[in-house]
């Protein structure tokens, strides 16, 4: 498992039960609303276009998407969403950045800090963790059946031309890191080349990953991420932990 965020942890989204569907819809609506602040036209706003595409992958109704866009552009009034960033240490000393979208800062901070403490972590002081990460573009895509090994070199050249700084392939998946403004070009190239885009946008990428090879610690880290992601206000969880053993799903 290369790094670990909601994007890398595709199974969480794909295996969400109906009971969690409302939370998934709410999370997508908030991401669309935030993206729409930079413009309500998806053709002119790649961040909004991607947020809409991701929402449709999770079967978010068009009415929800349109309402979220209107809230983002100010056409519909309501409590304004704000971005909240929390830094923390989790099981095994792994570093975490937790992104939240909320209309109530105090509620969100109280809830997420409580979750961190309950599941073996502790909240870090400002910038105690953030310096370990860089703000980058990230694209996670799937090629059914996996890309033939003899095609990887050619793919790498195309990705570099599109702005890729680094990429890793494992099984059916590819994970591409780009500069902050290049992720949409990489996403569009992969999509046109037959890849299914699982996630794309800006992310916090660790400058250096910390290998986790102990099964018990790996399970605790995985469980910690999943529990934090359960909170409705949490949009992304990033860590420098590089889980290299199998964990229970």
List the helices and strands and how they pair.
Blueprint: H1 10-14, H2 21-36, H3 46-57, H4 62-73, E1 82-89, E2 95-102, H5 105-118, E3 122-123, E4 133-142, H6 152-162, E5 164-170, E6 173-178, H7 183-192, E7 196-206, E8 210-212, H8 215-229, E9 234-239, E10 241-243
Report on this structure:
It is globular, with a radius of gyration of 18 Å. β1 (82-89) and β2 form a beta hairpin. The chain is of the alpha+beta class. Residues 1-19 have low confidence and may be disordered. α2 packs parallel to α4 (62-73). The protein starts with 9 loop residues before the first helix and ends in a 6-residue tail after the last strand. The chain contains eight helices and ten strands. It folds into three domains: 10-73, Orthogonal Bundle (Arc Repressor Mutant, subunit A), CATH 1.10.10.200; 82-131 and 208-243, YebC, transcriptional regulation domain (Alpha-Beta Plaits), CATH 3.30.70.980; 133-206, YebC, transcriptional regulation domain (Alpha-Beta Plaits, 2-Layer Sandwich), CATH 3.30.70. The strands form three sheets. It has a four-stranded antiparallel β-sheet. A four-stranded antiparallel β-sheet has the order 5-6-4-7. A two-stranded parallel ribbon has the order 8-10.
């Amino acid at each position: 498992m290369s790094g670990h965020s909601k994007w890398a942890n595709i199974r969480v989204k794909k295996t969400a039960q109906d009971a969690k569907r409302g939370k998934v819809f709410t999370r997508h609506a908030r991401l669309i609303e935030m993206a729409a602040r930079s413009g309500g036209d998806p053709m002119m706003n790649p961040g909004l276009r991607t947020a809409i595409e991701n929402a449709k992958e999770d079967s978010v109704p068009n009415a929800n998407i349109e309402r979220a866009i209107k809230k983002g552009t100010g056409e519909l009034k309501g409590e304004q969403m704000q971005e909240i960033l929390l830094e923390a240490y989790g099981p095994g000393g792994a570093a975490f950045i937790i992104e939240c979208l909320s209309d109530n800062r105090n509620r969100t901070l109280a809830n997420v800090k409580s979750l961190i403490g309950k599941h073996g972590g502790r909240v870090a002081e400002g910038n105690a963790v953030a310096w370990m990460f860089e703000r980058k573009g990230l694209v996670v895509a799937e090629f059914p059946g996996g890309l033939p090994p003899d095609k990887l070199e050619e793919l790498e050249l195309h990705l570099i031309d599109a702005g890729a700084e680094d990429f890793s392939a494992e099984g059916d998946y590819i994970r591409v890191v780009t500069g902050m403004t290049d992720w949409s070009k990489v996403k569009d190239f992969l999509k046109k080349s037959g890849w299914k885009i699982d996630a794309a946008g800006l992310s916090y990428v660790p400058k250096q990953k910390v290998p986790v090879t102990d099964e018990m610690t790996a399970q605790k880290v995985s469980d910690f991420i999943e529990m934090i992601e359960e909170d409705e206000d949490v949009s992304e969880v990033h860590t420098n932990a590089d889980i290299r053993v199998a964990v229970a799903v």
